[in-house]
Amino acid sequence: MWSEVVSANSNPVVGRRGLILILSSPSGAGKTTLTRNLVDDKAGVLSISVTTRPKRPSEIEGRHYYFIDKDEFIAMRERDELLEWAEVHGNFYGTPRKPVERTLAAGQDMVFDIDYQGTRQVRQKLPNDVVTVFVLPPSFKELKARLERRAEDPPEVIAKRLVNARVEMERWVEYDYVIVNEDLSVSYQSLKAIQAAERLKRDRLVGLPEFVQGLLSENLD
Ligand SMILES: Nc1ncnc2c1ncn2[C@@H]1O[C@H](COP(=O)(O)OP(=O)(O)OP(=O)(O)O)[C@@H](O)[C@H]1O
Ligand SMILES: Nc1nc2c(ncn2[C@@H]2O[C@H](COP(=O)(O)O)[C@@H](O)[C@H]2O)c(=O)[nH]1
User: Fold this and answer.
1) Contact, 103 vs 48, CB < 8 A?
2) pTM for the full predicted model
3) Average pLDDT rounded to a whole number, residues 187-192
């Protein structure tokens, strides 16, 4: 979980611990879009979840999710292969543990797109390594419009997600940061700013006391 000097760190003289950036939101607010932008910019490694949900037309196995059946999900859970898991909108979702451990051990940051139940579990297990961001839509009307425009889910699924959105939105108080995603590029800039600041947190930097000691012992003569 500790990195040596990492290039993503804007202070290259000290090392940094890897962190997990978690994005949650009601369905359709835009967390997947923001997460994918970060990953495309190589600002973190995406955690690919397993799910029992049916694959959407545009989704690719192993890129968006690993699509598994319920028996396989239960077996993974019983073998303790999931860092966290939850039932969301009537389907099971979980974060495979091994890739997370491997990535953090290599000193890289991770990005999670998971719900509030999973966020609680990860925060409890790795309290010092998690930064949480809740994404809100600018209005409920726009949330509905985005789900309809996305056109990836049948009407009854959209209706169910809109009902669940009211419960999910109340969880914003549990998160470190909140982004109201009106303009996507503004929201993305906010997300990058959060990540940049969190990467510089004093207790994430390794070797800082030694570095400062070295500074203080420098002789200018
Ligand atoms: N700021 C924005 N303005 C307009 N459309 C947006 C904005 N952000 C995202 N969208 C669009 O809204 C739709 C929903 O976004 P996205 O799939 O990222 O939501 P989500 O929160 O991940 O939903 P889910 O939980 O269902 O996966 C997508 O079609 C996306 O392109
Ligand atoms: N607790 C977890 N929640 C997850 C995980 N992967 C995704 N999700 C959340 O589920 C809903 C629905 O996602 P969708 O892709 O079906 O629209 C959304 O809130 C995701 O964030 C996971 O591994 N664990």
Assistant:
1) no
2) 0.93
3) 98
Q: Which long-range contacts (CB under 8 A, 24 or more apart) does 212-220 make?
A: none
Span 15-197 CATH architecture:
3-Layer(aba) Sandwich (3.40)
Domain ranges within the chain, ordered by starting residue: 15-197
Residue 152 has phi, psi (to 5 degrees) of -110, -15
- How remote is the CA of residue 122 from the centroid of ligand 2, in Å? 14
State the ipTM, two decimals.
0.98
Model confidence band, residue 204 (pLDDT cutoffs 50, 70, 90): confident
Cα–ligand 1 centroid distance for 29 (angstroms): 5
pLDDT of residue 7: 40
